[in-house]
Amino acid sequence: MANTRQPGRAAFAALVGTTIEWYDFYVYATAASLVFARLFFPAGTSPAVGLMASFATFSVGFFARPLGGLVFGHFGDRVGRKSALVVTLLMMGVATLLVGLLPTYATIGVAAPTLLVLLRFVQGLAVGGEWGGAALIAVEHAPEKRKSFYGSFAQLGNSVGALLASGIFGLMAGFGDEALRTWGWRVPFLASAVLVVVGLVVRLTVEESPVLAGALAGAERERKAGELPVREVFRTDWRTVLLGIGALPVAVGGYYVLTTFLTAYATGDDVGLSETTVLSALSVAAFVEIVATLIVSWLGDRVGARRIVVGGLVAVAVLAAPQFLLMGTRDEAVILAMIVVMRIGLSGTYGPLPVILSQMFTPRVRYTGISLSYQVAGAVFGGLAPIVCTALLTWLGTIWGVIVLLIAMCVLGIYCTVRAPRVSDTAGAAAPASTA
Fold it and tell me: Which of 72, 209, 384, 395 has the fewest Cβ atoms surrounding its Cβ within 10 A?
């Protein structure tokens, strides 16, 4: 009876853990969009330069993620998924709490942005190790015909975390701009401590992945003496890693174009919407996205996960221009509807991804392989997206540069998703390409 409960328990643990990790990550992203440019950099810095500097600290977390993926991927492949996930959760919780306690530039000068960057780096390490383990522990516990659905619970943490982050910042914004910039921005960071305690309790109830147990039993026979998982991945699967990275530009980078950059663009001089309006719209969209992610992942088990991801990428490409051009109408109902529709399309690009990525690698190096693919994509496409979009808008003086960039990311994602191989949980070699 205990074994029959494990798929649901593992999926729930993946949801809770990734919710906390992404809540912490998005709290920082939202603060970087709204207040960090004023709080952690010298007075008199121009708004555009301050925003780009703020986004630069945001990007540090993305560049730390590949290192986190390598460290915790090795740990997760050699020792266990569960142990790695407990450590990543603790790291993220402590770093986020400390950001909430950090003095500003006006108080301690250049030490403020320096410490901010250091804590952001720790956050990046934690997220780098979190996603791969959470996705695997959900997918590897799941029945064969429900892997897309159960795997999506790791992705739901992204939406739920974003909902919580934008919701609590929206609540703080309700106290007024002055309150938000003096004490209100700290509350979301400090609240993370409570969530981490809850996450640890849930995560410790999950059994280790049954797939990993079999992989570890045969690993020493199949792996060259002393060879690290990352070395084996680069020796045998480097092309697969590149395809994994190429499949993810919209799932990881497009998300920040349509949340972090969109928030700054909509509340800036170009559009001029209030912070409360934008945060409320993002909160509604995040809630809709939770339901949409479950639906598209359920469909992934029936019509093929790859078809769902490709369909989502096509939808994002088609909606890219309307999403940004309609912001200029300043019609709150139209803007809300457009953000919600776009997020439904976006859910298709990443909801079924855990099963696709996990089945691209053999189980004994799977944590390392998918973490490396996901986190390098995060560093390249996610970490640079807000900065590149801000630079394009500043240099070109038009939002069309951002629109074209987003469409190009969709095209790359479609190509690599279609070309991705599939490996079974027991086989040591890839099976023929499948549309599943």
Answer: 395
Which among 215, 129, 213, 154 has a CA at the least distance from the CA of 423? 215
Distance CA 209, CA 205 (A): 13
Crossing angle (nearest 10°) for helices 2-34 and 147-173: 40
Enter the pTM of the model: 0.77
Q: Collapsing DSSP states into helix, strand and coil, what is residue 104? A: coil
Residues 113, 57 contacting (CB under 8 angstroms): yes
| Residue 294 in tokens | 């479950």
Which DSSP string do the residues of 218-268 spell out, in sequence order? HHHHHSPTT--HHHHHHHH-HHHHHHHHHT-IIIIIIHHIIIIIHHHHHHS
pLDDT of residue 434: 40
Report the distance separating Cα 52 and Cα 49, nearest Å. 5
Give the CATH superfamily of 9-207+236-423: MFS general substrate transporter like domains (1.20.1250.20)
CB burial of 202-226 (b: ≥16 within 10 Å; e: otherwise) equals bbeebbbbebbeebbeebeeeeeee
374 to 70, 133, 277, 323, 436: CA distances (angstroms): 11, 12, 32, 26, 20
**Res 2 pLDDT > 70:** no
Q: With the C-alpha atoms ordered 280, 92, 160, 75, is the resulting torsion angle positive or negative?
A: positive
The reported pLDDT for the residue numbered 342 is: 94
Three-state secondary structure along 9-40?
A: HHHHHHHHHHHHHHHHHHHHHHHHHHCHHHHC
Q: Could you tell me the two tokens for 361?
A: 């690698």
